[in-house]
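Consider this:
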Amino acid sequence: MYILKQDIENLMSYIHQYDRIIIHRHLNPDPDAIGSQLGLKEMIQYNFPHKEVYAVGNTAETLQWMGEMDRIHQNDYSGSLVIITDTANRPRIDDDRYIHGDCLIKIDHHPLVDEYGDLSLVYPQASSTCELITQMIQQNPSMFRMNHAAASLLYAGIVGDTGRFMFDNTTESTFESASFLMQYEVDLFKIHTTFNTLSFPMLKFQSYLLDQLNVSEPGIAWMKITQEVLQKFDITEEETNAFVNLPSVLAEVYAWVMLVEQKDGTWRMRIRSKGPVINQLAAKYDGGGHPKASGANAANEDVINQFIEDLKEQVQYYLNTFERSE
């Protein structure tokens, strides 16, 4: 196991020290963000019932099945321990009241880009922050007692960030964590079915995306979703997350981007890859993330066009390198 024992001991020391703990995660949350946030909350409450533990942030409609957020006042941060899960850099933290806490801890699996907090537990070896938290417990069983609710949340987060164990961030440790969580009667069928279920409007939207998909040499694809399209299909931006990997089934596509227009006219870019490293490119466009799954931003169509050209270059570089290594 890859986690330093001292990190676990330091984390537990802080948790023991504070009677009020507030847990944040990143904006536009995915299952790993919600799973790590609510899973950690559940475990702390289960093991320390006398403590006040809150999870805050904007409600994610498509992930409400995982749990709800708490509403608290800014005064509640006074004398509190704040924990941020699954968030690489401070601008992405949902709810900036986190700065009013007494102490700040970061727990994350993204490549290090912003070292913040009084304690920073960052392990990019983990497939997900949910795996990282699970590994902490596996490595130090006396740290927390696990229960069904926490195990289900952590398992869902691992499933989400590994693409149901299909992405290459899935390791032996990932399966060890999943196996450990399954001891707590996690309903695998329910979780996997929930990930695979679409409403009829969303199924129609998927057909639209496939019809509008752009594919170009040397192996990239892109999908553009305007505000007008969102309104036409009665789809929220959050719900478009379910379709970001549609181009992944195409053998000739190595990297792709979903472009979603924001209400202010700017664009959110969700970038994915089957080989080329894309997080450095995402950083160039006010973003970041993992080598094969990142996000970025574009101010207008001209920036989008430049990004697509840069993505083509990145894929071509990958193909040239890959072909030389064969």
User: Anything to note?
Assistant: The radius of gyration is 20 Å.
